[in-house]
Amino acid sequence: MKDEQPNSADQHENPTPRQRRRIHWAFPLGIAAAGLGAVATVLLRGCWHRNMSWPIKHEHSEYSYQVCTDCGVKRLFDEKHFRPYGPYGQDVRELIAEVERRREERMERLRRDPGTDRT
Ligand SMILES: [Zn+2]
């Protein structure tokens, strides 16, 4: 009693698990992270924004910003001190608004109580 059925066809059907590992990274950036901010970006995409572009001049203001070449998130850039600052985000105008709001708050605090300028 021998079990010698010719089943060579089966041997070619080895599923390759690697093919399933493909990440759908053509994830629509704008929708994915709109309004969620940098934390969500890191969680969703595992990106720490290590590869930022050179500063780009924002068209409608005096601000410059950088773009992460991995995930596309943006951050304002201080050309005078040559360093990025402020929060990460998808919309440069929002970032500018946020930075200006913080500045206003600080000015307000200074006006009321000089000497407590903790940034
Ligand atoms: Zn990034």
Provide the succession of SSEs: HHHEEEEH
The helix tally amounts to 4
Mean pLDDT value: 78
Strand order of the largest sheet: 1-2-3-4
Overall helicity: 25-40%
Shape: elongated
What is the percentage of strand-forming residues? 15-25%
Instruction: Identify the bound ligands.
Output: zinc ion
Give the CA-CA distance, first to last residue.
84 Å
- Output the radius of gyration: 25 Å
What structural class results from the helix and strand content? alpha+beta
Number of strands: 4
The largest sheet, given as strand count, sense and whether it forms a barrel, is:
4 strands, antiparallel
Low-pLDDT sequence parts:
none
| Number of domain units | 1
Description of the structure:
With 119 residues, this protein is of the alpha+beta class. It has one domain (16-112). It has four helices and four strands. It has helices at residues 8-11, 29-33, 37-45, 92-112; strands at residues 56-57, 64-67, 74-78, 83-89. The radius of gyration is 25 Å and the shape is elongated. The N and C termini lie far apart (84 Å). Bound molecules: zinc ion.
Quick tags:
33% helix; 4-stranded antiparallel beta sheet; alpha+beta; binds zinc ion
How would you concisely characterize the structure shown here?
The protein is of the alpha+beta class and 119 residues long.
Indicate the topology:
Layout: H1 8-11, H2 29-33, H3 37-45, E1 56-57, E2 64-67, E3 74-78, E4 83-89, H4 92-112
Antiparallel strand pairs: 1-2, 2-3, 3-4
